[in-house]
Amino acid sequence: MAEIIAASEARVAEYAAALLSRGELVCYPTDTVYGVGAAASNEDAIRRLFAVKGRSLDKAMPLLIAHPADAERIAEIPVEATRLIERFWPGPLTLVMQRRQGFRSLALANQDTVALRVPDETVVRDVIAAVGEPITGTSANRAGSRAATSAAEAAMQLGQMVELVIDGGLRRGGQESTVLDITVTPYKVLREGAVGREELMKAGGQKVL
Predict the structure, then answer these.
(1) For residue 122, is pLDDT > 80?
(2) Where are the alpha helices (DSSP H) in 132-176?
(3) In the sheet that 34-37 helps form, which strands lie side by side, from edge to edge?
(4) Which of 81, 95, 61 is nearest to 193 (CA)?
């Protein structure tokens, strides 16, 4: 069984970051559900994560970043999308954008787009900042199973396949982030989630399908 440590423990972010940097998998709480992370540049860890989740290598995973400004190194950000970023980051909105040519990660499944989010959970942002690169933002569950809303549930689903679970308590909403594709016009919701279309249209100033 994975080690479980409370998010409030001293130096938990540094410990988790050290594990991720050496290729281990770590579960963590976000403002939506629990996620499982691997360092974006570590191909061995990413391959293991796909296997742990029972997910096909051709199905891209989203990435989490520590700060909105970090997105500029990874994606081409349309000017009109900055309003969505200012309104919903940190928060439960994942934006699909064009990937910068210089950025590579096996997690992206050779796609020209990348799905990014800044989670509204301090301990996770601290972990990402300490790692110094994005981490995967996929939910902590086997493919086809319900997303974990507690550390115990994440540990039960993924168990010995991950090194650490950061316990941030129960995620009461239990709703995953909304995934919005802003590479198309009008913008298109790819996954219904915590942010509704009306909020997106109001913040973004344009139609959302």
Answers:
(1) yes
(2) 151-158
(3) 3-6, 164-167, 26-29, 34-37, 138-139
(4) 95
Alpha-carbon distance 193 to 162, whole Å? 26
Residue 120 belongs to domain with CATH number: 3.90.870.10
Bigger pLDDT: 73 vs 203: 73
Cβ neighbours of 129 (radius 10 Å): 15
Residue 1 has pLDDT above 90, yes or no: no
Q: Does residue 209 lie within any of the structural domains?
A: no
Question: Based on the structure, what is the number of domains in the chain?
Answer: 1
Rounded to two decimals, the pTM is 0.94
CA distances from 30 to 72, 102, 113, 133 (A): 22, 28, 23, 17
- Residue 48: which H helix or E strand, with range? helix 43-53
> 72 lies in a domain?
yes
What is the overall mean pLDDT for the chain?
93
Could you tell me if residue 40 is inside a domain?
Answer: yes
Beta strands (DSSP E) in 60-175 are: 63-64, 75-76, 93-99, 113-117, 135-136, 138-139, 164-167
